[in-house]
Amino acid sequence: MLSYFIQLMNDMKIRTKLILSFVVVVFVPVSIVSIFLTGELRKFAFNNALEQAYQNVDRVKKRSTEVLNVSDDLSYRLSYDERLKNLANRQYESVYDVFVAYRAYPDLQQAKQMYKEISNIRFYSENQTMLNNWEFIYPEEEIRQAEWYVRAQENIGVIHWDYIVDERDGKHYLSLIKGVDLGSRDNRGVLVINVNTSMLNTILNQESFYTIIADSKNNIVAANRPDLYGRTLSEIHDDSGAIYQQSGSYEAIIDREASKVLIEPLNPEMGQNSLRIISIFSIDSIIAEANRINRLVLTVIIISLVLAVLLIYSFSSLISNRLLRLSKHITKVGTGNLAVAMEIDGKDEIGQLSRQFNSMVGSINELMNEVQESNLQKRRLEQKQSEIKFKMMASQINPHFLFNALEAIRMEAHLKGEREIARIVRLLGKMMRSNLEVGSGKTTIKDEIEMVRCYLDVQKFRYEDRLKYELEVDPDAEPVRIPPLIIQPLVENAVIHGMDHKEDGTFIRVKVTAQRGKILVVTEDNGAGITPERLEMIHSFLNESDEHEGGRIGLRNVHVRLQLTYGPDSGLTIYSEPGEGTRIEFSIPTGGEIDD
């Protein structure tokens, strides 16, 4: 792509290049600055709107709290008013006695008249001798079973806020509900103070953003949109569910518009209050001014570009002719005519270039010779570097000498009656011969298991009763050919790590089964197991792409060879839990290797 662009630039006339370069010099910086400033303006507008929203929410919170505090303070005074308790506890003998008692206690009516923040007050008492005057009310069965009434009866002295129906006019009100102790567990009253919702709506109407107050049941108790009075949050279309959160700042699609949602709890210290203020503002409306400025900047850029093109076109004509004449002389030199000489006119950069051109023509031959010499030296250097060879294995031990030595040790042990040592030496020699004879070919599962058996017998000689093992091989799997040293490293790993922190010994099981055209090989131990963190590191190590130096046949060696031979799904799978041991398994197809 770069070469194509360079070729395209080289094919352009100098006048076009000058025009294009000037356009780029003007347009690119202006574009970068405009994009940066526009982004900063959008960011500033958004942050400013967010700050204003926080201030609005804080203002609404303070003013709404003042309204709610009136009900809170009044409920505190009334719940400890002994005259109210005496009035509710007294057993009346006549309607006249009730009338006199009510007339002697005008506090509820006076409070309603005194505080504009309160819409109404009612006190529920189960004293059947009292009359229902819509201030003192005997609760009907429906009221007694209401959730808010039961909660107030069970939590005496605790303030609850709820959006409930006033049975006197059938309307919903945000109400303070408080259970009042009248002297005994069976004699309790419930005080309900209706908040003046119109005052809350008036407070919210002064806000420019979409603002509502909702309760714990997602009822909208106040809002600056009349169409939401008395409704629930489900009336607001929000698939993300941000408006149902208890607090925080969220981005959501509200009524199909990208919006910012601010949620602030409303005085959580005022009893069991889950009221919250929800402020929603459209992001598009905030950045509208920034978008307008962006369009204005784009218009200015286009006008500037047009003016720049006109100016550079006239300016480029002054120098393009002189450069064209220089280009013609260079073309002659390119054809091999080194006798040309250019007439020098002017003392500017083009004039200097003309002088340098004349000097250049005289030294081209010398330069060509230097290039040829440089290439010759480069070839000589490469030739010397290619002569360096890697040499290894200058000194090796003859495997036959090692086998003969092991056989001599075995015979000596046998003659002296050390049959167990002789057996172990024989097994060790058999293992070493098998390992050294391993090439790029295949071995059978039967032979591989035999090597595993030799290895385990040698280890059992070392660990005695601390090591026990079991080999279970499906006869159908024995003739299957596999790469050598695939199962033995897994058993070696089980012995080494299975014996860690195991004073009572370790049990190793190797199971090979043939089923559904696949061979499943499982090695298990009852060792200390592997922690989840360590197991994750092992999985990462198995799947590393980089090669590691060293010839030790380990888990990664087996894992990679299985994947290279049978495909990426045939690698090792490790299961382990601390204290439960470790199981390593792999499965391979019985049909042979995957062709490259």
UniProtKB/TrEMBL annotation:
| Ranges of residues in domain HAMP | 317-369
What subcellular compartments does it reside in? Cell membrane
Q: Which SMART domains match?
A: HAMP
Q: Which PROSITE patterns does UniProt cross-reference here?
A: HAMP
How this chain sits in the membrane, per its record, is: Multi-pass membrane protein
Superkingdom of source = Bacteria
Asked if the Swiss-Prot or TrEMBL record annotates the protein with the keyword DNA repair, the reply is no
Asked if Manganese is a keyword of the record, the answer is no
Please give the Gene Ontology molecular function terms for this protein: kinase activity
Coiled-coil annotated spans: none
Instruction: Report the Pfam families cross-referenced here.
Output: dCache_1 (PF02743), HAMP (PF00672), HATPase_c (PF02518), His_kinase (PF06580)
**Name of this chain's protein:** Two-component sensor histidine kinase
Q: Which organism is it from?
A: Paenibacillus ihbetae
